[in-house]
């Protein structure tokens, strides 16, 4: 049986054409943060560095994946949507890159799941970044996601 992260990678590649085009790979899921990686070549811009849209897409997918994997670990079937996000580009990326996402400060899965159980809908804020080789952020994303329990068939 594949790990939850491996299953998520297969699903992303099968259902999201952009993930395939980016050549996305799940690097790590530790139960609190998710790291996705892509090679530079399919994500390059006209200047030879990483395309800003690829940076944002990878951070958004990593953030969505944190919510999705947390829901799956608890056996919950929800639709997960990005509600809003803010991105900051700080430096160009000249090599293969990754994005790591985790809960924003002050957020907790416990509160999120309590609200989801009570209302059938809950919101969660996350932060993601694409680090440069020295560890400083090339780009960062602050986002809020909404999970809505799917109606039973």
Strand order of the largest sheet: 1-2-4-5-6-3
User: What is the count of β-strands?
Assistant: 6
Relative helix content: 25-40%
Structural class: alpha+beta
| Order of helix and strand elements from N to C terminus | HHEEHEEHEE
Radius of gyration equals 15 Å
Q: If you average the pLDDT, what whole number results?
A: 96
> What's the main sheet like?
6 strands, antiparallel
Give the strand content.
35-45%
Cα separation of the termini: 26 Å
The coarse silhouette is globular
**Unreliable sequence segments:** none
How many H/I helices?
4
What does this structure look like?
This protein has 153 residues and is of the alpha+beta class. It has helices at residues 4-15, 17-22, 52-73, 109-119; strands at 25-29, 33-38, 78-89, 97-103, 121-131, 137-149. A six-stranded antiparallel sheet has the order 1-2-4-5-6-3. Strand 5 (121-131) and strand 6 (137-149) form a beta hairpin. The chain starts with a helix and ends with a strand.
What are the SSEs and their pairings?
Blueprint: H1 4-15, H2 17-22, E1 25-29, E2 33-38, H3 52-73, E3 78-89, E4 97-103, H4 109-119, E5 121-131, E6 137-149
Antiparallel strand pairs: 1-2, 2-4, 3-6, 4-5, 5-6
Q: How would you summarize what this structure contains?
A:
The chain has 153 residues and is α+β, with helices and mostly antiparallel strands.
List keywords for this structure.
153 residues; 6 strands; 4 helices; six-stranded antiparallel sheet
